Amino acid sequence: LPKRAKRTYLAMDKDKEVIGYVIPVHDVVRGLMEAQEEVTEEGINYVAMRNLFVREAREAMEVKVEKKTRSKHVRESAERLEMSRTMEEWSEFRKKMNPDSLTHRPEFIVKPRGQTVWEGKDVKLHCTVAGWPKPRIAWYKNNVLIDAKAHSEKYTAESNYNMHSLEIKNCDFFDTAKYHISALNVKGEASAVASVVVKICCSKSTNLVRGSFKRPLFSFYQTTHHGVTFETTIIDKFEVAFGSEGETLSLGCTVIIYPTVKKYQPEVVWYRNSVPLKPSKWVHTHWSGERAVLTLVHLNKEDEGMYTLRVNTKSGYDTYAAYVFVRDADVEVEGVPVAPLDVRCHDANKDYVVVTWKQPAVEGSSSILGYYIDRCEVGTHHWARCNEVPVKYARFPVTGLVEGRSYVFRVRAVNKAGVSHPSRVSEAVVAMDPSDRARLRAGPSAPWTGMIKFTEEDPTVGVVPGEPTDVVVTEATKSYVVLAWKPPAQRGHEGVMYYIEKRISGTDTWQRVNTGIPVKSPRFALFDLAEGKSYSFRVRCCNSAGVGEASESTGEVIVGDKLDLPSAPGNPVATRNTDTSVVVSWGASKDVQHLVGYYIECSVVGTDVWMPCNNKPVRQTRFVCHGLITGANYVFKVKAVNAAGYSQSSPNSDAVVVQAAICKCHNSFSLFTLPAVFSSFPPLSPLIHVYVNCFDSLTHIFFSQLKLTGLFTLITAVPGKPTGVTLQEAFKDYMVLGWNAPANNGGADIRGYFVDYRTVKGGVAGKWHEMNHQALTTTSYKVTGLKGGASYVFHVRAQNLAGVGKPSAVLDCYVTDAVSHRVFLSRLKILISGILSPFNISPLGTKEIYVDVDDDGVISMVFECSEMMEGSEFVWSKNYKEITDTSRLTIISERGKSRAIFNSPSLEDLGTFSCVVTNTDGISSSYTLTEEGLKRLLDISHDHKFPVIPFKNEMAMELLEKGRVRFWTQVEKCTSDCQVEYVFNDVIISQGKKYIMNFDKSSGIIEMFMDSLEVTDEGTFTFNLVDGKAKGTTSLVLIGDGKELQKKSEFARAEWVRKQGPHFVEYLDFSVTPECDVLLKCKVIETNVNNYSAVDISSEVEHIGKLQEMQISACLCSFLPTANSSSEIKVLSTEHGIVLYSTVTYYHEDLRVGWLHKYRVKSGVTGDQLWLKINEPTEKDKGKYSMDIFDGKDGVKRLSLMFDTCTCISCLDRARVVGGLPDVVAIQEGKSLNLTGNVWGEPVPEVSWTKNEKVLVSDDHYKLKFEHNKFASITIAAVSTADSGKYALVVKNKYGTEAGEFTVSVYNPEEEESKEEKKD
Fold first, then answer.
1. Which of 106, 438, 662, 929 could form a disulfide with 190 if both were Cys (CB 3.0 to 4.6 A apart)?
2. pTM beyond 0.85
């Protein structure tokens, strides 16, 4: 080439026409690097090698070219590509064959998709997970594990190969949640989330917005459903019960339901402290149809409380309640404390859990020094102590748990006398971090936009994690300090662990606490800290990439108890109740944190022995102490308890004699002793008498024989009577009572009110009962559970620090038994300054307040009145107080209808709303808005604002004839204005050559057709629907399966083209007939335009030529040699034994037959039958039998047969005893024995019975029967010791004999007891 010419690789001839390519053969070597080392001596070999390299370098500098044609160049390029592809496939194969490369972490090939369904429908979540080893799959709902086997009626989880699904049946509103699937193997964990939104149908939503969402128990609909009104009566009631730890206690009542309806049973529910009880290993319930029984197995102090039986019927419910006290079990060592109670686990993480408990009521002979916490792994029985030194605080962090394992815990108290019994074990808890199961903290609601978006963290493997945030000290005691923090935002998928560092205040040195192993949980408990010293703490994150930066320090924290002991409760006041009980009230402890409750103790005056009244702490400041001695004089004291310990005991109450309280004052004045507290002088010797005027509630205090010098302070008296007791509202099955606070509060604030009632039957008044066991803080009360046709009398009592005051005037009401269940006043006895307080009663026909949600999602309450008078107005109230603030509600009234519109519904609007129409005969109604009801209304409002188009079927795809592809879906309903938008990979597509769309609005079917699938058609197809305000979306993802679908489409089109001309319906095939003939057949369809005819050559035998016949004969020889013509081994039973034989179709003399067996038998050939005979088979004939046949060319081994005695007996119909008889029978002397054995045999065997090998004869003592040729029985009347022995049932026919043996043992209980006494 010329020096300045541009280098080209095209070879040209003289006419400048390209004739090929110029390919460089060697790369140009630009130079050799020579070492500049000093060489002192050069050898011959060195000089030769140097000259060789220099010559090769010079040759390499010259560019050698070679002319190649274009076809040769293309061929060589194709060969190089094929070689490289082969090497890559071989490399991939070697990688797959490597076991280390086969294992990989789980990976979601197809993630579950969020779905929106209608209420009552089923929904199914699908996903595909890859991974090796095969990952374990777990489903969660809002981070709570779903146990599909325990709730099979709700969930169905399936796993087929790598495809997994979760089916949710009969969806309701509470199934709206985020469902999380977790896949875990040894290589790692992967997870995915799908949201399920359950919509409420329009027909259901209309009913839901009227009135309350939970139908009232006494609604008119339920009452008339069966056409009767049920009356419930509870008799044989259980009283206040006492039990001890470890015992079993049963509570029961007899329930009478009138009238009796066939196959109708009421709902019986048991409650403990107003919490429904569920059957467990500790609680058993039984309902026989008349009696309800609750059994408490192995009582514990956790079982103490108020037990209530509630019987629900279609017409209402009835309840009965009584208290159950559980005493401590006897201690083994005198003076040790009793067991703690209520052990619970909180804040469980991967290696950390917090255990809490409640202190016992009895500390023993000395104060409790601390507690030991024990743990046990579920499935084992080994208990390990978690703390070496007793902890005083009733809360302890347990560390060192193994992730993924379940544990239970128990607690023991210790004092100077010893260690108590262990408490009841806690519920099992799993050492697992919830954040590892679900990265999203899902709430009870789901997005309402109609489009669910998923976000995932970017992989950050190999990045050092960031610093933790919000490091705080959550607990600090003398024994330990607990730190908590939030994980860093950048932590990757591999997870992080933590190092904790501490620093003593005044120093600059940070010390690592956990130097050995980093912790996995964002919680850590530090022990062995010096009490009183100040520390600072910080945390570092670490992973496989390294240790991150330290977090901000917590600041100085002084080691010591942060929680103070509670203060002593106020002075207790004891009030008579019954002959065996006393009501004790006291003042609450002031400024107490985390109060657990109160323990009440009692003591008989004159003794110094204090006994606990309750073994489970109570939180209220009023308690009824039962189990007292009638007529004895008791004093009481109270102590509070929290996690830090016990408070000081309150002062002792005044002594009270246990006897029934006085129900009625005989005089206008009553005399009682008022306790007094004096300062700066000894207690008073004379009594202070207080006279209370019962009518005007004015208190006059008179002092007699008072000889004092100095000042004193007098404790407050009980409050006066509440006034203005009225019936504020009465409707259906409830009424609302209201009253005013008493004019005289007794010198202290009113702490609450108690409403009492009694029934009046035939003019006879019953006993007073408390409606509420806990004091009311409001001056109104809603009375429920009233029975029709009964009269009720109510009064109200006020309570302050000194106790409960006198009752108010009575309010007498009568409840009719009419269908409407209205409540009427028959008489009103309110003697307050002679004024009759007004009340509101809803007359018959009054409508209820109902809730309405319009199309714009506006929520309002509506009340209608058709009996408006002149000057009548609607007056709305909240919690029975007139609404004056219009910021929350906008009230619009017109034409006998009033609407209260919620401006911005929120939790502030919860309460009871009532509406009264003035100038009418008491027309009113009320509606209670609960938190659950508000949430449901907000959901309905959202549905009305943003409606969703329902789909009958999600988008699906199917292959049609000619390879066409059809995408389709169907909506449940739509209007004529509904529009569809077709989208592929976020791009709107329109109808053309490639796509054909169709939308049939009458049937709701949406279709899109494609002639064929191509590689570029992989992606997401979406149908977006808009129908007014309603919207709907359905999608189908075609990723990964595109090539396979494309092949199916091409094959379908090729098949269609092939079938346009003559083609095979059935291809050429052969079959062998039982006569050892070979049949060749095929089926062809000939097409002439529209004329089709089928040809079956199996019937055209004449078309086969002579050559073909010879070939078929050869096939017969090759396919069916003589040995192959033998049949399978068959079994024949004879009277002499068993014959095994095989029939040969083509038999000749050269056929050699050999039988393989373990024992000598007789064999031979008869005609075309090869046989082997076994006469009188025994145990020795057990073994494996097979037959070898050889015809000189080929051989065959026929079916092997495992022949044993059972096979022998089953083949021969010999007599035998099939069952029914035991091996040993033990029976008491004097009883009767009857045994029956099952007999088999053909012909029918002879039956006999033997005793000690002697034949028995049927008589009065032995009755022998043989019925239906199958059942043989023996009856021994009044057995004695002489009947003991070895019996046998013997059966016999011509094929054999068998005996079923058994042993009878007769014993005398008195002789057995005397033998045991002699041994002792």
1. 106
2. no
